[in-house]
Every structure is written in structure tokens, then in C-alpha cells.
Specification:
Length: 185
């Protein structure tokens, strides 16, 4: 039932992944779910760069490590190591991007919101498939166009790390009920 999937979905971090392979078919199923997100004026702005093979993830790891070393001050050896480990701990990494409608027929925030809804669809599908996921938006995302080609008007919003995991996830909680966040008019 969809309400149970929504309530039980959690961020599962690369350190929690068990190293099991995510098949290309599984990645395509997750990506297909993104394609059914709501989109104003049918601009379908979501774009994804897929780092699936170990070679691709190694390349992303090295690139992010180099960019961290070049751009982050003060430099932290611990954070540098974590930046480089995440792609290697993952079974697949998707760069979450959006393509701005050249006609600018909708505000940019709507394109970003549609892309976020596509990511939510992927997250729910991955969860249903027992694949953990985590959306990270480090400043290093702004350099990704130096590693892989981007079309004009395309921007990266972050990375969607995915991996299989063992065991059960912790039960979720909310600090306040929905009634505290709702005004009925």
C-alpha cells in the first residue's frame, strides 16, 4: 500500500550499503518511476547522469576528491575521505539534474520542484525494491559539468546515492503532527 511505502521510506546512507550489485534493470525501473512525476506544461525537466559501473563510480570518486582538495578551505582529510568513499560504497550514483525550459514557460522553481518530485518517485520505488537511497547536495555538484557533458540550461541539484542494505530501517517519526502545520480556511 502506498501509504505504508511513504511512511517507511528512509534515507539510507552509503556507509549502510552491503556492496551487493544493483542491476541495470533495477536502475532503469527506478529511473522510469521518475519519468512519471507531475510536470507543469509537460516540460519534464528532470535529467540524470548515471554512474553505475565501478569504473564510472571510481571516476566520480576521484573527480569529487580532486574538486574538494581544490575548492574547500579549510581542508579536512576526514571529509575528503568521505567524499571519495560515497561513490565507491554505492551500487549506483545518479547525478540529479534539471533542464531549464528554453522558452521559460514556467518559473525555474517549478522545474526544480518537478525534478524533486521525480526524485521522490525514485526514492519510493527504490525503497519498495529494498534499495536504500540518499540525496546529497554538496557544493561540489556545481563542478560536475567539468566531468560529464551538460546541455545548455542544465544544472545539477545533487547526487542520489543508492545501494542494497541488510536488516530493517528504523521507524520514522515527526516532531509535530500535521495539524500543527495546517490552517483550515
Amino acid at each position: 500500500m502506498i501509504s505504508e511505502i511513504i511512511r517507511s521510506r528512509r534515507a539510507v546512507y552509503p556507509i549502510q550499503y552491503n556492496g551487493a550489485t544493483i542491476s541495470e534493470k533495477e536502475v532503469k525501473t527506478i529511473l522510469e518511476s521518475a519519468n512519471w512525476a507531475p510536470t507543469h506544461r509537460r516540460t519534464e525537466p528532470w535529467r540524470f547522469k548515471v554512474f553505475h559501473s565501478i569504473e564510472a563510480r571510481q571516476g566520480l570518486s576521484e573527480f569529487l576528491g580532486e574538486k574538494y582538495r581544490e575548492t574547500v578551505q579549510p581542508f579536512s582529510e576526514v571529509k575528503h575521505k568521505k567524499v571519495m568513499e560515497k561513490p565507491l560504497q554505492s551500487g549506483c550514483v545518479l547525478a540529479i539534474c534539471f533542464q531549464r525550459d528554453p522558452k521559460e514557460s514556467v518559473p525555474e522553481w517549478e522545474e526544480i520542484a518537478a525534478t524533486a518530485m521525480a526524485v521522490q518517485n525514485m526514492w519510493l520505488m527504490a525503497h519498495e525494491m529494498k534499495i536504500g537511497a540518499y540525496w546529497s547536495s554538496p557544493a561540489l555538484k556545481n563542478y560536475l559539468h567539468e566531468l560529464v557533458p551538460f546541455d545548455g540550461g542544465e544544472k545539477c541539484l545533487g547526487f542520489f546515492y543508492m545501494g542494497k542494505y541488510d536488516g530493517e530501517l528504523l521507524e520514522g517519526e515527526r516532531k509535530t503532527p500535521i495539524e500543527d502545520k495546517t490552517v483550515w480556511i
